[in-house]
Structures are given as C-alpha cells and as structure tokens.
Design goal:
The chain has about 475 residues and is an all-alpha fold. Helices cover about 80% and strands about 0% of the residues. Bound molecules: tryptophan (TRP). Tryptophan binds next to helix 1, helix 2, helix 10 and helix 14.
Length: about 475
Amino acid sequence: MDRDSWVSNVGFVLAAVGSAAGLGNIWRFPWLTAENGGSAFLVMYLLLVIGVGVPGLLAELVLGRRGRQTPIGALRTLIGSRWGTPLGAFNVITTVVMLSFYSVVGGWILRYTLLAPTGAYFAQPQQYFRHASHGLPAVGFHLLFLTIVAIIVYFGVSRGIERVSKIMLPAVVVLLGGLAIWTATQPNTAAGYAFYLDFDGNYLATHFFDVLGPAAGQALFTLSLGAGAMLTYASYLDEDVSLPRDTLVIAISNTVIGVLAGLVVLPLLFSQGISPGQGGPGALFVALATAFGSLPGGALVATVFFFTVLLAAVTSGISLLETPVATLVDNYGMSRRRATLLMTLVIAVTGSGLALAGPMFRFVSGPVVDVMLTIGLFAFLAIVGWILRQDAVAEFQRGAGRLRGFATPWVLAVSWVLPVVVMFLLTTTLASLASLSLATVMRVAIAVFATLICRTAVTRTTHDDAGYSNR
Ligand code: TRP
C-alpha cells in the first residue's frame, strides 16, 4: 500500500515543530519557570534541551524513518520480536490519553479566544475559570477543539497536516513576537525581565536538584518525546534527509517559541503585581485574565494571545491524533476516513469524561501522562541504544553530511546517559505518587540500578545478531 508522505522536508520540519510547540511552551514553560526560580530554570532547561532533548528526539526520529511505519509496525520490524506489538500499542494508547486531556485544555483556550473580545472573563477571572474549566461547557468546547483537529487529520499528511502547519506555525512565531514587543512597551515590566533573564547562580547552586527534575521533564515534554508521535511523523520522511540537522532545527525553533512565550507571560504578570508560579497551571488563566483586564487594549491583546495559543495547541493536537489514526490505517487496513472518525469518537468520549471529572483530569494530565511518556521514551532509548546500535548509527548518518561524526557520541549518550535521566524522572514521579519523599541520592541510585537491570534483561532476550558489540 502506498503511504502518504511529506511533500518537502520543510513541511516535515514545520509539522514537527508544530507538534513540539504547544501548550507545553506557552503554558507549562512560563509557569514552571516561575515556580523554579526564573532564570535558573531557564538556564537549566536550555542545557537539558541540548544534552537530553536533542539526542532523545534524534532517537525517536531514527526509529520512525528506519521503521517506516507507525509505532506498532515500526517497533515490531525493528526489534524483530513480538515485544514490538505491546510496546507500540502502549505508545498509541499514550497519544489517546494525552489528546483526551490536551483537547479539554484546547477547549478552554478556544473559549477564551472566542470570548476575549467581549471581555467576559476580565471582571471575575477566578469564578469564570472555575465555571469554564469543567462540566458541560468544557465538554462542548473540548468537542469543538477536537473537531478542528480531526478535520485536519482527515485530509492526511500532505494535504492536511503539512499544509496547515505551513501556515499555523509561522503565524504562531509572528504573533508571539508581536506580543513580546507589545509587552516590552508596557510599564512596570522590569522586575519580570530581571526574574526571567538575570542569571541567578546562587539560586541554581542551592536548588540544583529541585530544578533539575522539572527542567528535564519539560525538555522532554516540549519536544513531544515518548508518545510515538515524532516517530510517526518521521516515518513519512525521505531517505536522504539529514535527521541530525532536522533535529537541531526542530529543537531550536521550539525553544525560541518557549522563550518568546516567557517574554510575554512573565513580564505581564509581574507588571500587574501578580506573583506567578502559585496555584499551578489553572492559576495562569486567572492571572493572565486579570492582567489583560486591567491593561489598555486588553481585550484585543487577549484575543491575539489566546488565538496564538490555540494555533499552537491545534498543531500539537494533530500529531496526537495522527498517531492512532495512522496506526489503524497501517495495521488494520482501515481507510483514513473511517480511522479518523473512529478515533475522534473515542477521544470525544474519553475527553468528555475528563472534562466532567475534575480530580480525574488532574490525575491523568499530571502523573499518568508523565509516567506514560517516560516509559515510552525509555523503551525508544533502549531499542536504539541497546538493540539497534549500528543500524541506528547508519540511519543517523544517512544524508547527515558533516554531522555524521556525531553519530558515535550520540549513540553512547543514548545507551548510557539518557536512560538513567529518564529513569530518574520516572522514579521521581512514582515516588511522589506514592507520597514517598526520597532523597535525590536515593532516586539517582534507584535510577542507575533499574537501568542496569533493564539493560541486562533486554540484552539477554535479544539473541539475534542485532546487538553488535560496540567495544
Ligand atoms: N510538546 C507538546 C507541547 O509542548 C506536548 C506534547 C507532549 C506532545 N508529548 C507529546 C504532543 C506527544 C504530541 C505528541 O505542548
């Protein structure tokens, strides 16, 4: 069967940046930055994007292009064992779970965009958000958001996703840039810029490990790793495209979008005397609404701001829906039309459930998603670093030009460093779920130990000659 593919490499890159740049950049990033010491978090985050995010993204793209299929088929072919099916299925379920909550938040954003011109939520932001964020109104806007995403996916990779990304992503950058400039003209923003941009070495030294966890988590989340969405996008890619170059472009563009969002959100909050970082992501809706409510031209700026977030959320949502849809097409020979309809119905129901049940929503959007993404990414790293090795290096080098030389350090990082970092994040999430307060040293020790056990188990079960020894 003929698979759809990207018309151009630029189209792929824009779609991948579209997947990466979403609520994570404009919502989660400023809020995490605010919670974790501002500039200290920014620096740590940038280092982790380079050291962990970039090699991780490369691993997922390598799997996608080498496997030339959606997660189930790709992993089954690549590891040559039946384990590929449950692993790939786990990815597909992750995207469904993610989109269920993502689409609910997308619905909030849609509502805030449509109602911004009327200033509906400026007067009583707190009550308004409480009313809008769950219950039947939230279900309605979730369904509306999901429909937009579904229509794009319905048209397929080249005619739907690529075309839309080529318009929406540049629009996000231009609008965010405009908003950042507007913000700079507002009074009383100096404290916000200082908090965000004046590097505070002292804070970092005293809070190093407190900042490390959230910064590493954000570096992986923002690049859409561990769900098989990037893998799926890469499966539509040409053989001669340089994966390392594309990875760098994707990571840099995505980071620019996150940093720009911080340049809008943080100074705005400070200018209103609102202390950011308290009360989690919901509070940001409230705080921003308060800020927009008291600024001149606030209704217009709020409209532009939420519209920008909406575009970013849609381009992430399409990669989340594309993964299960394309899996049904690849593995069950379903038509794209039917597959889109079916998956949209499923997520309509699961998302509505989350929109109605507040505690469930918080549980799924927080720890459940974190755990699923880290397990998914750990599996990708294990496959690339422990099983494929030389095949992965070959895929890295195909079309890579001068960047070929980075293949060896990359594969070493993927097999020895990244799995421990990801396992550390998993340990941290699981420990806090179990209300265990483990010291950092303890969590590091568990992470190293668990990684070694997994490594032994994986290398024992793969008897084939794929595991060329590297030393
Ligand atoms: N990167 C997206 C954002 O920043 C969110 C995301 C995380 C995601 N994991 C994903 C999107 C997997 C698609 C697939 O908003």
